[in-house]
Specification:
By secondary structure, the chain is an alpha/beta fold. It has 21 helices and 10 strands. Bound molecules: adenosine-5'-triphosphate (ATP).
């Protein structure tokens, strides 16, 4: 999978990666059409409204200025004709005054319209932005859910996901900016048409004077992006430190180890280095920006001088002078904001790269186009044929040469020391990963030929690092089969099988009691109590194969006995794989696989393995001795 890598770093000191080339920055503009398309999909109706209203709004400035020019010319005309002596109450009878009043009323109307349109447009923009942010967040969640487990264990992907997440919040302003740009463009054209009639070459002067400011903005935007991009891992670490330092889950350990100082210092150090990198750019940007803007101002005043000069020489009227000078001032600000805005849009388009490139990551573990129907019931069972697997980016085989059969209806236990490969085997069995070597067959056909969803529905796994959901107790069990969330009888039955019903019976709110301390009404459970809830999830499924990875590690001896008693009853017609370090659990299995260093060392029943006298017998003796 082509994962983007961040630029080279040395010893925690960060130089921004060289800003992308001008061409690359222009190429990033290709992200705009899909961006606009996704905004359009958010709400076509609002899009049409904002475009139409902005178009109207764009034509107002030039109209207002032109009416202003007419007013001044009319006033000058009245002054010259001595008509001011006319009785103002008799204005109805005077065509000249009537004309002036009309012009004044028109300008007033335009001013009110401009204000109203501006407000409506910004309201629509903020609605559209929020809708866009919501729908993109949903898309992000959905896409993230479709990715492989492998992707989530990849730091590069985490960086990309983080940048994509930040884009969602930041990019909504891009919409306002883009539309504002289009609006400014229309206004500029309307001004330019007006000015062209009077002094076409003045526009050229203005444009040339603005080029340095534009290039400067372009450059510094790209630098900001480079810094932001490069510091993603550090910003993620900042978030992580913040959570570590101030969350219910970590508070216990952080307090008892006195880690607060350490976390705060680490946070401060990191955040300051990001601050320095940003400050350097901000300072240089302000310095150069000031210089470039001055060049633009010089261009503007040069044009102003020329216009004044020509008015004095009678080539322009006073109305023309006010119209031209105001048009010029507006044109200059507009052009400046258009050009810098363009470079900002180009900068933001670079950020869109992050969002879109995240959407382009494709999962590799997929269902086949023509999946084989999942066997109901499983007949032959699962067969591992010389299966080997290496974690992505690791040289070492986590498991290798795995050869065994998990028969239908069999309870298999996996034992072995830490890191022996037990969990990895289970991940392969539930197709969270595909083997790098060998194959896994289900009833004679490779696992990959079955529909992934059917496989996951038929294989229920509870991992040792199961999730403690801060939902109510019923939902905590229902997550095992979320479609059956409303089926209280099923949830209660699952709770009964895993002995979780006793735990829930003691909760003040029963099944409706929220668990965990994250929310105000939550009640926390002990480790073993949480585990009983988690085991109940396995019983929520109609799984033909149940996998429990150290399911009873946190249970007391009596609870463990009970859980397994009920488990045996249930697993009569099902297969099960149980990983455990406790021999009291392991010995209940039909067969036991002893793993060591990623390989299978021995397979047999408890009695067979004990009498064979290998590692199993040794470990069993060791644990038994502990109880004597
Ligand atoms: N996500 C991962 N990425 C890289 N290596 C991993 C990953 N998960 C496990 N490993 C490595 O693979 C090997 C097998 O790990 P596995 O989790 O299967 O062991 P285990 O037998 O379940 O151990 P334990 O009893 O401690 O749970 C170990 O050496 C471990 O370091």
């Amino acid at each position: 999978m082509p994962h983007q890598t961040a630029g080279p770093r040395a010893g925690g000191h960060h130089e921004p990666s060289p800003p992308k080339s001008l061409r690359e920055r222009f190429v990033a503009l290709r992200n705009l059409p899909p961006f606009l398309a996704s905004i359009w999909r958010t709400s076509p109706w609002l899009c049409v409204c904002t475009v139409v209203l902005r178009l109207l709004r764009a034509l107002l400035p030039v109209s207002t200025l032109y009416v202003g020019k007419l007013i001044i010319d009319a006033v000058v005309h009245l002054l010259a004709g001595g008509s001011v002596k006319v009785d103002p109450t008799a204005w109805l009878g005077s065509p000249a005054l009537q004309h002036l009043w009309l012009l004044l009323a028109a300008e007033f109307g335009l001013a009110v319209a401009a204000d109203l349109l501006g407000r409506i447009v910004s309201m629509i923009d903020s609605l559209l932005s929020e809708l866009y942010a919501n729908s993109t967040s949903v898309r992000l969640m959905e896409h993230a859910a479709s990715l492989d487990l492998e992707d989530f264990e990849d730091a590069d992907l985490q960086d990309r996901l983080d940048r994509a997440r930040r884009q969602v919040a930041g990019r909504s302003s891009l919409l306002t900016q883009l539309l504002g740009q289009a609006q400014d463009m229309v206004t500029i054209i309307s001004f330019a048409v007006g000015l062209l009639v009077y002094a076409p070459w003045l526009i050229v002067l203005l444009l040339v004077a603005l080029v340095p400011a534009f290039l400067g903005e372009f450059h510094f935007n790209a630098q900001s992006y480079a810094v932001n991009h490069q510091w993603t891992p550090e910003r993620r670490e900042l978030d992580y430190l913040r959570i570590l330092g101030a969350s219910a889950q970590t508070a216990k350990e952080v307090k008892s180890f006195g880690l607060n100082r350490f976390l705060v210092d680490r946070y401060r150090e990191l955040s300051w280095s990001i601050y320095y990198a940003n400050r350097r750019i901000a300072l240089r940007r302000a310095g150069w920006g000031g210089l470039f803007t001055t060049i633009g101002t010089i261009g503007y005043y040069a044009a102003y001088v020329i216009i004044a000069w020509r008015t004095v020489h009678g080539q322009f009227s006073v109305g023309d002078l006010t119209f031209l000078s105001a048009s010029f001032r507006r044109l200059r600000t507009l052009l400046e904001s258009l050009l810098t805005g363009f470079s900002q849009v180009a900068g933001q388009a670079l950020y869109l790269d992050d969002l879109f490139s995240f959407f382009q990551i494709r999962p590799e573990i997929l269902s086949p186009a023509q999946p084989r129907p999942f066997p109901q019931p499983i007949r032959a069972g699962f067969v591992f044929e010389d299966v080997g697997f290496r974690y992505p980016g690791s040289e070492r085989w986590a498991v290798r040469h795995l050869d065994f059969t998990l028969h239908a209806g069999e309870v298999l236990a996996l034992v072995g020391e830490n890191g022996a490969g037990k969990t990895t085997l289970v991940k392969l069995l539930s197709r969270l990963y595909d083997p790098d070597e060998g194959r896994i067959l289900l009833d004679g056909h490779p696992l990959a030929e079955y529909d992934l969803e059917a496989l996951r529905a038929n294989v229920g796994v509870i991992f040792q690092d199961y999730v403690r959901y801060h939902f109510d107790a019923a939902d905590n069990i229902a997550v095992g089969r979320i479609e059956a969330r409303a089926d209280r009888a099923r949830i209660e039955d699952a709770a009964h099988r895993s002995v979780a019903d006793e735990v829930i019976g003691r909760l003040p709110g029963g099944y409706d009691q929220r668990l965990g301390k994250l929310f105000k009404d939550g009640v926390d459970l002990s480790g073993g109590e949480w585990q009983k809830i988690a085991i109940a999830r396995a019983y929520m499924r109609d799984a033909q194969l149940l996998i429990l990875d150290e399911p009873t590690a946190a249970l007391d001896a009596r609870a463990e006995f009970e859980v397994f008693q009920r488990f045996k009853e249930l697993s009569h017609e099902r297969s099960a794989v149980v990983i455990s370090h406790r021999f009291s659990t392991v010995r209940m299995a039909d067969r036991i696989i002893v793993m060591e260093g990623g390989r299978i060392e021995a397979i047999g029943s408890h009695d067979e393995l004990v009498s064979a006298g290998g590692r199993y017998a040794e470990l069993f003796e060791l644990q038994a001795a502990g109880y004597r």
